[in-house]
Records
---
Amino acid sequence: MRMKDESVSKKGLEGHIEGRLPVGRPTGRTLDAVDRDTMRMLKCRNWSKLAEERDAWRRRIEESKAEVPSYSPAEEEEEEEKEKKKKKKKKKKKKKKKKKKKKDWTTPRIINGLL
């Protein structure tokens, strides 16, 4: 049985990264990011040793699931929509501020004391 073309796993496996890599030293290693995340979520410094003991690892995962709020893609989409609306409002306010009032030349005015 083959994987469906729409599946996230297949897209990730066959995905092509577009663009260019930044010049210079990388900001961090992948293992450093994993260490930070496990420290933050699992409160564990040496996660690789803990992962070797499957029962202890499962217990730690279950404990951390109870502490972390549930994830919902719908909630994330709602937050993104709210951010877009905020940006649109800011743009509208900027456009209103940029519009200058046109001068009214129909009424007589004193220009440099000539009239």
---
Amino acid sequence: MDITQLKGLLDRTYGFDISKKTRAREYVYARRVFSKVGRDFGYTFEDIGSIINCDHSTIIHHIKSFETIHAIDKEVYGKVVKILKSSDMLNPYKNLNQAIDVSVYLDRISELEGLVMEKDFTVEQDDMCKLIEIASSWSEDTLSHFIETRVIPFDKMNSNQ
């Protein structure tokens, strides 16, 4: 599902064109839902804004103010996310239930640890050492869970910006 199909899904769910230029509350809330869903599924602020005729700063505002919408709109958000999670066309969460090879990440952490130890410490390297120190005390299950639920989604989010 591409972003225009996502907009179409929300248009049908709300029963109106969410990109209509109006400040009516229901339209603003619908655009907030669209912005939040779009961002959750990896679209850039510009991608989202181009579909609903808003600039990237408006999209950022919609996402930050998402919590102020009515419960009915949060239900719409939940329904749309559920539909998208069940779709293989657009689902950043679909691989989280699959087993991942934690050893790849452990090897990379060890490699980075070696690089950090070889160089003079800077603020960035000091932060890396703190991360390695914390992560090295975790069980393999805890580390695996952290990688699956935090590192991989964060890495995907950063690569989409």
